[in-house]
Design goal:
Blueprint lengths: L2 H21 L11 H11 L3 H34 L1 H14 L8 H8 L3 H26 L2 H9 L4 H39 L5 H9 L5 H29 L6 H4 L1
Helix pairs in contact: 2-10, 3-4, 3-6, 3-8, 3-9, 5-6, 6-8, 7-8, 8-9, 8-10, 9-10
Protein name: ABC transporter permease
Keywords: Cell membrane, Membrane, Transmembrane, Transmembrane helix, Transport
Subcellular location: Cell membrane
Length: 255
């Protein structure tokens, strides 16, 4: 039995337990609808134009945030990882900023950039930069110094060593950081939509569904949609890792 089959069996078992518990009467279905109801609402929502626009808004904000994070974190990580003086000089400010929860910055972000899409994108960028940055720095620390010395002995300058030796060898670590940041960025986008409101997206849909009539079936259907999007993103990045960086994947992982 392969990994996919075991995963599907585990998921089916979880859904069956959820269905039985929800219909047992221990909890009113108004507060915990069974998965059969949630999936019915989910498929109905796929035909709802306004819901699809919310999905597109969240995915677009996620893609922009992740792209900006990569554009910032990879060059900065290469710089900090290769120039020790700059790394030491910036360590204090980085260690001060890194632990700050992004959601705690929502009021500040609203004041600075308003309550539009810029808020969720900015906060997602702030949260997603760190995994990529530290994975890039760690990757440079793990490079065999002999590779760098050999490249320099052939007369390659710092820039060529960076792009021909350091960057290719750090690529698997960087992509791992991007996978981590992809999940973080999606969480922050949806969370900011839910907490800040007013910018559309899945989080705003869940907020609207949870207030007023309190439609938990719609809340869980929206949550299910976010989970499916996150799963598909992770699978796409794993596939990119296996196919694009095949040389860095073990035989078991490549199968």
């Amino acid at each position: 039995m392969n990994k996919t089959s075991r995963g599907l069996i585990g998921l089916l078992a979880f859904l069956l337990v959820w269905e039985a518990f929800s219909r047992s009467g221990f909890v009113a279905q108004q507060y915990l609808p069974p998965p059969s109801t949630v999936f019915t609402r989910f498929f109905e929502l796929l035909g709802d134009g306004s819901f699809l626009l919310d999905v597109i808004a969240s995915v677009l904000a996620w893609a922009i945030a992740l792209g900006i994070s990569v554009a910032i974190a990879v060059p900065l990580g290469l710089l900090l990882g290769s120039v020790r003086g700059i790394r030491v000089a910036t360590r204090a400010i980085i260690e001060f900023l890194r632990p700050i929860p992004s959601v705690a910055l929502i009021p500040l972000a609203i004041v600075l950039v308003g309550a539009g899409p810029e808020t969720k994108i900015s906060l997602a960028v702030y949260a997603a930069v760190w995994p990529i940055l530290f994975n890039t720095i760690y990757a440079l620390d793990e490079i065999d110094p002999l590779l760098v010395d050999t490249a320099r002995s052939f007369g390659l300058g710092r820039a060529r060593v960076m792009f021909t030796v350091m960057l290719p060898n750090s690529a698997p670590f960087v992509l791992t950081g991007i996978r981590m940041s992809a999940a973080v960025a999606l969480i922050l986008v949806v969370s900011t939509e839910f907490l800040a409101g007013g910018s559309g997206g899945l989080g705003n849909f869940v907020l609207d569904a949870s207030t007023g009539a309190g439609r938990m079936d719609l809340v869980l259907a929206g949550t299910l949609t976010a989970g499916i999007i996150g799963y598909l993103i992770n699978e796409a990045l794993e596939l990119l890792h296996r196919r694009g960086l095949r040389w860095s994947v073990t035989g078991k992982d490549a199968s």
